[in-house]
Design a protein that fits this description.
Blueprint: E1 11-18, E2 21-31, E3 37-45, E4 48-54, H1 57-72, E5 84-86, E6 89-91
Antiparallel strand pairs: 1-2, 2-3, 3-4, 5-6
Length: 94
Amino acid sequence: MKRFAKIEITELFLVKADWNRTYMGEITRETQEDGKEFVRGKVIIDEGMAWSTGESQADLASNLDNICTMKLVGGLHANEGPRELVAGASLYLN
């Protein structure tokens, strides 16, 4: 019997705040019970990470581009405010 190595394929995409700042993100596709595609992605932006979802890759890309712009241009998280302890980790929930 031949055994094959386990291969995991990761789909990557670019997230941008502007033309000079782009970041590589990871995308995951799933199918919901009703047959609709569900797309989620994450990207590391400087010292943080952003997650989002969408009904299509275009929705996801738009959401993450906007989050990236808010973080880098608009100062999102400049003032963290109160933090919550979740599963033993101190998180700032916005």
